[in-house]
């Protein structure tokens, strides 16, 4: 069985495949593993007993339970415990394994993307808090700083000061100018990255924050509009597209997506649709001569959406590793 599974996975392009025969050996290797095919019958325990231990580890792997035929109760128990999927040993194993493994791989990558989305939300909340503090800094510090600098300049341009006093006043002026620059950089802050300050303490990094560099990838590729009712899908797709250089907006309906697509700055329209043959784009009709690229993310077979005019059709769950690459390729193909 192990030899068969290894050959099937190798045929799908997996080149780092390890075979272990005990739970103890699996736990030793799990930190280096993205995907585990877990048999129920093990020499030192059972797959069901090992599964929670695997999934409780930091950054747990995707787990596909390998069961015997006719053991639906075992498969259901594994899914309840958190397994990504299961596959039965039998005549259809060679046929069923590749799509099941691919689905598990994509789900794992989407999970990692969702984690990154959550970190983006945390960073955004921190940036809001920093922005509120910046307003306070400007209000409370800017005017006193300017007044102090004026007084210092009057001292320096007035009657001649004794050399030690003049040097001291110059140092005070330099310190005030540094404070003014810090307040200015805080006002131009576009990130809220922290760096170590003292043991157990961190500080917001103000260096280079006001150089006009856009966050993430900015909006250099134009605007993307996404229609989906799935919040997680929107967050994942929006994050990936922003990293690829798009600004991203969400349309609440197909009709709203159609209206937005008529704006001159829209370069990409992504529709999360059912893909059913009767109405694959859920009422959306791509106009002739459109300038934007149309991407359909479908739950069913991709062919109907392609025939309905989509430039690119992706099936759910889409692959985060190739999502933007495929979209950019479709945009390049349109010229």
Descriptive account of the structure:
- The protein has 335 residues and is α/β, with parallel strands linked by helices.
- It has 3 domains: 2-90, Response regulator (Rossmann fold); 117-204, Helix Hairpins (Orthogonal Bundle), CATH 1.10.287; 223-334, 3-Layer(aba) Sandwich (Rossmann fold).
- The chain contains 10 helices and 10 strands.
- It is flat, with a radius of gyration of 29 Å.
- It has helices at 2-11, 23-29, 47-55, 72-81, 93-157, 163-187, 231-243, 254-261, 303-307, 323-334, and strands spanning 35-39, 62-67, 85-88, 194-196, 202-204, 223-227, 247-251, 266-273, 293-298, 312-315.
Strand and helix layout:
Layout: H1 2-11, H2 23-29, E1 35-39, H3 47-55, E2 62-67, H4 72-81, E3 85-88, H5 93-157, H6 163-187, E4 194-196, E5 202-204, E6 223-227, H7 231-243, E7 247-251, H8 254-261, E8 266-273, E9 293-298, H9 303-307, E10 312-315, H10 323-334
* Count of extended strands: 10
Strand content: 5-15%
- State Rg: 29 Å
What's the CATH architecture name of the largest domain? 3-Layer(aba) Sandwich
Q: Spell out the CATH superfamily of the largest domain.
A: Response regulator
Q: How widely separated are the two ends?
A: 49 Å
Helix content: 40-55%
Please, how many domains?
A: 3
Shape from CA axes? flat
């Amino acid at each position: 069985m192990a030899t068969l599974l290894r050959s099937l996975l190798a045929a799908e392009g997996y080149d780092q495949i390890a075979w272990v025969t005990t739970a103890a050996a699996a736990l030793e290797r799990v930190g280096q593993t993205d995907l585990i095919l877990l048999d129920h019958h093990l020499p030192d325990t059972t797959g069901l007993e090992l599964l929670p231990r695997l999934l409780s580890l930091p950054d747990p792997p995707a787990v596909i339970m390998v069961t015997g035929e006719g053991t639906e109760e075992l498969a259901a128990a594994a899914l309840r415990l958190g397994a990504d999927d299961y596959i039965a040993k039998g005549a259809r194993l060679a046929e069923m394994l590749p799509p099941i493994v691919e689905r598990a791989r994509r789900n794992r990558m989407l999970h990692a993307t969702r984690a990154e989305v959550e970190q983006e939300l945390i960073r955004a909340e921190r940036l809001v808090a920093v922005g509120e503090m910046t307003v306070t800094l400007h209000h409370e510090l800017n005017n006193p700083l300017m007044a102090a600098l004026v007084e210092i300049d009057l001292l320096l341009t007035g009657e001649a000061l004794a050399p030690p006093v003049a040097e001291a006043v110059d140092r005070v002026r330099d310190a005030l100018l540094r404070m003014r620059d810090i307040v200015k950089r805080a006002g131009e802050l576009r990130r809220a990255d922290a760096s170590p300050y003292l043991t157990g303490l961190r500080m917001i990094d103000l260096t280079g924050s006001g150089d006009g560099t856009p966050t993430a990838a900015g909006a250099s590729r134009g605007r993307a509009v996404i229609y989906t009712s799935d919040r997680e899908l929107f967050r994942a797709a929006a994050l990936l597209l922003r990293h690829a250089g798009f600004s991203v907006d969400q349309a609440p309906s197909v009709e709203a997506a159609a209206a937005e697509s008529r704006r001159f700055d829209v370069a990409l329209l992504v529709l999360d649709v059912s893909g059913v043959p009767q109405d694959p784009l859920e009422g959306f009709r791509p106009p002739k001569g459109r300038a934007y690229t149309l991407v359909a993310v479908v739950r069913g077979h991709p062919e109907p959406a392609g025939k309905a005019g989509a430039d690119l059709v992706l099936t759910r769950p889409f692959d985060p590793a190739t999502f933007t690459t495929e979209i950019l390729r479709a945009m390049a193909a349109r010229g």
